[in-house]
User: Fold FtsX-like permease family protein from Chitinophaga pinensis.
Amino acid sequence: MISTYITIALRHLAKRKLFSFINIAGLAIGITFSLLITVYIWEEKQVNRDLNNLPQQYFMQSAWKADNMYMPLITPAMLAKGLHDQYPSLVADYYRTYPCSANATYKDRHFRVGLQPGDTTIVSNFGLTMLYGDPAHAFRDNNSVVITEETAMKFFGKANALDEVLTIDTRQDGKKNYTVTGVLKSEARENSVTTINGFKNDIFMPMQSVDYFLGKDGDKDWNNVCMASYIQLKPGVTPAQLDGPIRKLVAMNCNQQLKDNMGIQLVGLDSFYLDTNNGLVRKMIYILAIIAGFVLLMAVINYVNISVGNSTYRLKEIGLRKVFGGRRQQLVAQFLAESIVLTGISAFLSIAFYELLRPVFGQILNKTLPHVWSFSGMLVLFYLLLVLAVGLVAGIYPAFVLTANNLLKVLKGKISVGKGELVFRKASLVLQFSIAILVFVCTLYISRQINYFFNRDLGYNKEQLLVISSVPRQWDSTGLKRLELLRDEMMQKAGVVSATISYEVPDGMNGGSLPMLPQGAASDAPVNVERLVTDGNYASTFGLKLTAGRFFTDHDSPMDVVLNETAVKALQLKQGVGQEIRIAGNDTRLTVRGIVKDFHFFNMGQKIAPMIFFTQQINPAYRFLSIKLKTADIRKSIAGIESTFKSRYSDSPFDYFFMDEKFQAMYFSETRLKKAADVATGLNFVIILLGAAGVVAFSLTRRAKEVGVRKVLGANTRSIIYLFLKEYTAVIIIANIIAWPLAYFLASKWLDGYAYRTSMSLAPFIVAGGITFSLTYILIALQSFRTANANPTGLLRHE
Assistant:
C-alpha cells in the first residue's frame, strides 16, 4: 500500500513539473536554512559540554552596585581558594587564573601568545585531554608550562614538544625559561576555561608565575580583584548554600569598598557561555531560531496554497477512488504520502545545499559548522523528525480539504471551496507577506544601527592608526625610557605623523577604575572613574579634542591629570582646569591640567564613562605603541616601522592591528546578526515570489476562459493585468498594517539595548513595503502579460 502511495505521488510530481519545482525549491530553501541555523545553535550549546563534572562546575562572577568599578568576570584573588580550604564539605575543587599575554621565543621564532598563569588544577579539574605528558601531574615545578597542540606546532614544528624550552618575556622579572611538560589536544569544541572573554590562550603556567605579571603575591591578596575564578561543588550542593560562606569570607577579609559594593554570583558552566555578556549568545540563538522558523513556515504555506489551488486536477481521481470504495483515511494517507515524498526530495537537496553553503554560513556566524557525515546521533534524529514534521504539516491541510468534498461535485470536477477555505488561503498569504515585511524592516534597522556606529563622531580619529601590540612590557623607568626612544625614532620617519605609548586604546578593554573625589569632598561618596595610563602624545595621536586647558606632557609633574567632560560633571567640578582631586582613601593631590571632549572608548551599548588620564611617569604601565600614519604609501610606512621596531627589539614579534579594524571587531555580533538577517530576508522574498508565481500561474489557468470573454468584450492588456494585480493589493496592504506595528515594537526593543542609537523613522517601513509591492507586482505583471496577450479563441477553448 505504501509503495503504491509513493508511486502515485511520484507520477503526480512528474505531471505537474512547474508546481512540483516551486514546492520542492521552497521547501529545500526552508529546510536548508533551518538546518544551518540548527547546527549553529547545536554547536553553540555544546560549548563546555566536554568538561569534567559539568553540572557541578561554576564560574564566580561579580555583581557591582556602583558604576564603573570592575569587570563582572573577575573576583578577589583569594575567594575561590578560601571557599575550598574553609568549606571542604561544599567545594570539591577550584581554579583561578590571571589571563594575560606576552612575547615568547624559541630560537628565531617569536610570537605574541595568550598566557594563563593559574592553579595547577586546570587539567585534572576540567578533564582537558593531553596528547603528551601526565594529566595527573601536568606541571613538574614552577618553571614548567602546558601548551596547546597548535602552539607546539607553531614554535617547534611538532606536536610532541615535551622537555622543549620556551623563553617568555615577563613584566616583572625579564625573560624566563619554561620547560614544556604537557601538550593539550586541540579542542573539538570551545570551552570557557581555556578561552576567557573571547580570548583563546596558548600557554598555561603555574600560579607562581602570576608574580611576574601581576605583582608579588598577587594571588594572595583578598583586595586584589583580578582573578577569573572557578569552583567545583560537591555532588548535591547548590549555589545557594554558598551564599552565606561567601558573605562571611568577604566580610572577614575584604576592604570596606568591596564589602559595600561587591556581590558574588555562581554561574553554571553549562550555561555560562550562553549567558555571559548580558546573554549575547543566547539572544543571538533565539533571534536566529525565530528567523529560521519564519523561513520554514513560509515554505510550508507555499506548499499548502499551491496544493489546494492546484487541486482541481485531482478531483475526478478523488471521486473515482470514493466510488470504488476508497475510504477517506486512505485518501488522506495518499496526500500525506505525496507531501512526505516531496519533502523528502527537498530534504535530500537540502543536504547538498548545506554542504555547499556550510563554509559561507560558518564565516558569517564565526563558527565552524561540521560536515553532514560528522553529525551526532541527536542532530541526525532532529533532522529526520524535522523533515517528517514539515511533510505532515505541509500535507495535512490539503489532505483533509480535498477529501471532504461532496461526491457528486467531485465527479463533475468541482470543488466546494467554502468561506473557511478562502479565508485560510487569504490569511496564509497575508501571513507570508507580513513575515517578509517584518524581517525586512528589522533587518533595515539593524543596518541603520550599524551604519550609525560607523558614521557617528566617535570623539577620536581611528583612521590610519597603526597599533603595535607586541612591545615588551618592562614596566619600570628603564623599560619606559627604551620605548620612548623607539617612539621618538618612529616620529622622525617620513610616513609617521605622531606616536604614543599607552596601556589602553579605545577598544573597550580599559585598565580598571579608581574611586575619585574633589579635594575637600567627603570620602563616603567617591565617583568611579575609568583610568587611562598614557604619555603626552595620546591626545594628538588619537585626535582627542580639548575643551579646556591642555594635555599633559612627558615633562610635567606626575601629579598632573586630564579628565573627560563626563568626569568633570560627575565630580561636580566648577572650573575643572586647575582644580585638585584625589583618590578616595589617599591624600595625594592631583591637578587637572586639561579637559578632553567625551569620546567613545567602549561599545555604544554603554554610556560614555567618567575618565581620567594619568601620565606614564607616575607608574609605567604600557601595552601599546600607537602610530598615526600619513595616507600616502601605507605599505612602505609599515615596512619602515617594522624595520625600526626590529632594530630595537630584535627578539620580539612585530604584531600590529589598525584601529579601524579593532573598532569593527567591537561590533562583530551586530555585524554577524545583520548578515544572517540579510540572508533570511533574501530567502523570504525568494520563497514568497516562488509561491506567488505558483498561485498566479494556477489562477491564470483557472481564469483563462474569463480572460477570453473579457478580451472578446473589448478589454485591453492593461486592464486584464490590473485584474490580477488587484487581487494581491489588498493582501499586501493588510500585511503591511500587521507587520509595521510588530516591526516597530521589535526594532525599538532591540535598539533600547544601546545607550547611543539611531532614531525610529518611517523610511525603513516605506522601503520594505515599497520593495514588497514592486517585486510582487512585477512578477504578477510578467506572468499575466502572456495570458492577457493571448488569442481569445484559444483562451475560450481552454479546459
User: Anything to note?
Assistant: The chain has three domains: 54-277, 422-458+666-799, 471-651.
